[in-house]
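This section describes the prediction task in plain terms. A model, or a person checking by hand, is given the sequence of a single protein chain and must write out its three-dimensional structure as a string of tokens. No templates, partner chains or ligands are provided. The sample shown here is typical of the held-out split.
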Amino acid sequence: MIKQFKGEIYLMLAAAIWGTAFVFQKMGMDYVGPFTFGVFRFGLGALALLPVIWFLDGRQRRKTPEEAPMPFGERQLLAGSLWCGLSNFVAGSLQQIALVYTTAGKAGFITSLYIVIVPIIMFFLRQRVGLLTWIGVAVGAFGLYLLCVTKEMHIQIGDSFALAAAVCYAFQILLTDYYASRVDPFKLSFLQFMLASLLSLITAVLVETIDLHAIWECAVPILYTAILEVSIAFTLQVVGQKYTKPAIASLIMALEAVFAAIAGAVALGEIMSGRELAGCVIMFASFILPQIPDVKKEIWG
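The expected answer:
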């Protein structure tokens, strides 16, 4: 029971970090371009994972000397890192571009739609999807309409990028879920973040002007997103999910969107209209609906 409570606290902290990170990602766009930001966000986040990998490899050598830790050159690890890194780069870049045009709070809620997009992808992969999930998708679509579509039936460009990012994050989550059970999850994260950083660097050189002074001015947003969002929050998620039932974990991590809206209002003075707030509430309900059967089963048996 204590371990389960600790796991839930870890996941709550991860959700809080991810949610507040939208504010720092938004602040970063005042200084550098989306791809330049991605270079350091992913790269420094990957480097911050190295001490964790070193510690875990050392512990494994002490506990099971006959079983060597998985090498970075393992074939399946490299394949997983390639696909996960590519999807992470595309999703992260789209999200960062979205924050140039939309608020941190709206970006947080729209991006969190990956929670209901994942089951849709699973359906097309011929996996069973429950009725409540489809109801959640319909409810989420209506909430998205209220949040993003104006009375003149226009959708803002930033919201479009955030929605595209949510779709890409859904693919990234499914890919990570597939490979994380087959390879070392921390090494998978390190390699995929390094690849995302490299792809960001190539794109930044091609389409952006890299200003070292601007990068220095952007140090706080970069360090927050790299160290806290990418490395620490991921570690909290891995440890938290070890002790928490999947349905409960999904509900807790869905709070990322709520934290993003609160942080945007407090730190950036972002104010949503009544229509947008209604959309947020309805979308949050859509995140919860598909989890109800699993939550009931895990709590009451």
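For orientation: Residues 46 and 182 are 20 Å apart (CA to CA).
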